[in-house]
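Bumping with the actual sequence this time:
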Amino acid sequence: MNTTHLPSRLWLTATGALAGASLLFGVSCWQISSGGGSGWQALRAFAEAAMVGGLADWFAVVALFRHPLGLPIPHTAVLQHSQERLANAISSFFSSSFWVPQQIRARVAEVAPSRALVRAALGAQGAGERLQRCVKEELLPLLQDDAICRALARVLQQALQGVPLEHLARTAAGSGAQSKLPESTVTLLLEEGSSYLAAHRTELEIQLGKAMAAKGAELLGGGMGGFIDPFIRTALAPMVIQESAAYLKQLAGAPHSPLRVSIHARLSAMLQQIAVGQRGSKELAHFREQLTDEETLCEVLQRIPKFLTDSPRFSKADADSWLPALHQFLESHPNVALALDTLLADLAADVTERTAPMVEQELKRTIMSWDMDSMMNRLEMQVGEDLQFIRLNGTLVGGLIGLCIFGITRLMGMI
């Protein structure tokens, strides 16, 4: 064996044990020929069997990797002559025992990947800015998609049907020469919208989830759409409705918010045109029709991305606050985090299944490209210690078996 890469102490111990057994065999043979007693015969039996065991195990260990003493004995250098079979076995074992979709899905789900990824990104330089850019350039533009806009518009239509326009009209008429509605009226409008979204949450979540899932399947294709669909229906759509209701409630208590100021000015301009009486009722009906018109709502929704991206939240200075905010959001919304974790686990399992043949072939190709001498040296380096113990055990166990056989033979001769 090439001992360069093996632990020298163990190799010397195993070789020394074999040499010791050989020396003991020679000494015992000399003593017996000189008239030595049965004790020397027992030692000779021990040494003889120990030599046989040690040599046999030495031959077996060496024959795994190369030809013993360089002799081309049949069925030696087993691993060198079985490179293709070894490559097939290792690659097949890896793909069937480690690269398994169900196992990968379980392992990914265990680590709660959504929060783990955010925690890991918290310390990465520029991660917040990249997240900000992703939302700005990839997610917000989805609001400008016609299908998603119309789905959100239908949700708003239902919410606006419950807005008390008659009360607002009376308020506007009672305002007389005032240039805008009282703050209390805008607060009432926002609170009514928030209350409607909260009261009809389940119905709205189903409608919005259905529309968004259909768009997700269209954008991502049939295969990936199947994974994103549960996330949209169970997490994203409910999150949009819940957060919208919460945001409207927040706006109701924030009279100086830029968005609220814009809403206030627009409503004031529109409602001031409404008169009281029969003509006022017609105007009111026309106003409600305009307010709930799908095309008008879509136009408003499509302006939201620009309004948001022009806000201070999308400034470079505010980018560092995005990841902590996202982490806090996932911690406070475990249903969203769970849906994301399930989505990521399913995606990982799907990628595993799709790439399994490729991974197996690449592993096989890599093993086939190895230089076999280098490969044998690597294997010997990894298992050399155990191999030397096999040699040492073979010597000792062989000697003990020889001694037992000697004892049994003597006993049988005495009977």
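The tokens above came from a reply further down the thread. The CA atoms of residues 186 and 264 lie 6 Å apart.
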